[in-house]
Design a protein that fits this description.
This protein has 309 residues and is α+β, with helices and mostly antiparallel strands. It has 14 helices and twelve strands. Among the domains are: 58 residues, Arc Repressor Mutant, subunit A; 90 residues, Endonuclease, Chain A. Helix content is 46%, strand content 19%. A hairpin with a 2-residue loop joins β7 and β8.
Length: 309
């Protein structure tokens, strides 16, 4: 009959010679058996509720993984530590750095801990046996600590190796954007400055504007809202604040074509006649005057702002 040590050996080997109390319980072990192994010197305590085989060196991956195992299933290596594990150039194996759910309470010397409210919006990838934030989330987090040059180099590395795209980064930005969220402004500015115009699709442009509005505390608009006049379809607008009857159209290069402009104008007139207010923004306006765009949308949904301006 296999012993507890036999049952735990594959877990030890897969986790840099670490096991958690949860691992022991799942293998059928008890607290008493843990205490016996600690007292006999066969195991050492690596973290609260995390143990390693005595006598083995505590490697950098083990130092990263131990607090993750202690913090629970949603904890993961992040920021510069994740960048090192993902092979992003310019980030070495320095101080272990992890993200945990807010309230997990992991605090240790020689460990950088980020308390996050949005870990549920991403799924960890495993690198060297360590749960790690995926590439796009790591880029977003690096926006908090990296220089613009470092961030651009990291993105270009990911694009060259097929780890990310401007569309992937835009979707990540949209999923995490909120007022005060570290990294959001840096990533949005990087996309605006370096995504070649031909690589920004209409859907990317829409998500970038939504992220900008959320970043500055505005409510999220409805994407692709269909405006009806009774049973008559009037228009589908890119973004809408329905209660305020405010519509936002984001004009790409195609809207400069005469035939498209001819199609847009009657639709725009119909919206105005139905009491809608319509704002139009180009990519150039978004890139060069993002705060003016935010102010105009704020006035669109709050007439008191416009009256006092």
């Amino acid at each position: 009959m296999p012993t507890l040590d036999d049952l735990l050996l594959p877990t030890f080997a897969a986790q840099h010679w670490l096991v958690s109390e949860r691992d022991v319980t799942e293998a059928g072990g008890t607290r008493r058996q843990i205490d016996h192994r600690l007292a006999s010197g066969r195991w050492d305590r690596a973290e609260v509720g995390v143990y390693r085989l005595a006598g083995l060196p505590l490697t950098w991956p083990a130092r990263v993984l131990a607090p993750i195992l202690a913090a629970g299933p949603r904890a993961m290596a992040s920021h510069a530590c994740a960048a090192a594990l993902l092979g992003i150039p310019g980030f070495g194996r320095g101080t272990p750095e992890i993200s945990i759910e807010r309230g997990s309470g992991v605090r240790r010397p020689r460990l950088i801990v980020h308390s996050s409210t949005d870990l549920a919006r991403t799924s960890a990838v495993v690198r060297e046996g360590i749960p790690t934030t995926p590439f796009d989330r790591t880029i977003l987090d690096l926006g908090r600590v990296a220089t613009p040059v470092q961030l651009l180099r990291a993105v270009e590395h990911g694009r060259r190796h097929g780890h990310t795209s401007w569309s992937d980064l835009t979707a990540t930005l949209r999923a995490h954007a909120r007022r005060g969220r570290p990294g959001v402004a840096a990533l949005r500015q990087l996309i605006a400055a370096h995504a070649h115009r031909s690589e920004i699709s209409d859907s990317d442009f829409e998500l970038l504007v939504i992220a900008l509005l959320l970043e500055h505390g505005l409510p999220e608009p409805v994407l692709h809202h269909r405006v009806m006049d009774g049973e008559r379809f009037v228009a589908e607008v890119d973004l809408a604040y329905v209660e305020a009857k405010g519509a936002i159209e984001l004009d790409g290069a195609v809207h400069l074509l005469p035939e498209v402009r001819e199609r847009d104008l009657p639709r725009q007139n119909d919206l105005i006649l139905l009491g809608w207010t319509l704002l139009r923004f180009t990519w150039k306006r978004y890139v060069q005057r993002p705060l003016a765009l935010v102010d105009e949308v704020r006035a669109l949904i709050d007439p008191d702002v416009a009256a006092s301006g």
